[in-house]
Amino acid sequence: MFDFKDKVVLITGAAQGFGRVCALAFAERGAKLALCDVNDKGGEETLRLVESAGAGGFYQHADVSDEAAVQRFIEATVARFGRLDVGINNAAKEIAGPTLDLPSSVFDELIGINLKGVYYCMKHEVAQMRKNGGGAIVNQSSITSSITGEIENGLYGATKGGVIGLTKSAALQVAAENISINAIASAGFDIPDDVFLRWIDGHKVTREEAARWFPVNRLGRPEEIAAAVLYLASDEARFAVGSVLTVDGGITAH
Which residues are catalytic? Predict the structure, then answer.
């Protein structure tokens, strides 16, 4: 199950954290990887790790808030591998602060990366997948969206809620074309350089203290979030249409 041998998988925001975890998970299952980020040092390191795992791939600098850059990246992917089977739209930015007190320019920046970036990626990924006869897209949302709220993260949460709205509407549009589009809403993963650990470190919360917030009484493991993404990206998940898979140790159900 979840065999991606010779499948072409595109991952945005691949330089660190969740993006790197996904890249390695697909690499271990035989995928060919197209990776992008604006952090070139981190992106090249992810590529090195992917190649060390025996997978083929390339890295390209691309800012997802720039539609032309997204289009060039997808064109480069197809030029290199001949097709596109899976898109993992993970690139995002978090700028914390009270929702109504942050400068409006911050909201514009977050919308550009977190929301428009996902839209641009889906738009051009779907155009290519139609040529293939199908594919799968997984968008990275967050529990800090339409699922729950956070006083210091309202603008980020609003963009992630928008990702869920885009996911659902786009999924309905292309479901009959053998293209699945779904989203992940996660929290609490012990992944270096990922948003959750940056948040608790910034608030001087230890891993042990944070673990007590979750009914499972621990933080999530990288392989657990990878498994969720692998499922939604797999052929076995084609009946999932516009789903939001929440993987958060039960914190939103607590």
Answer: 156
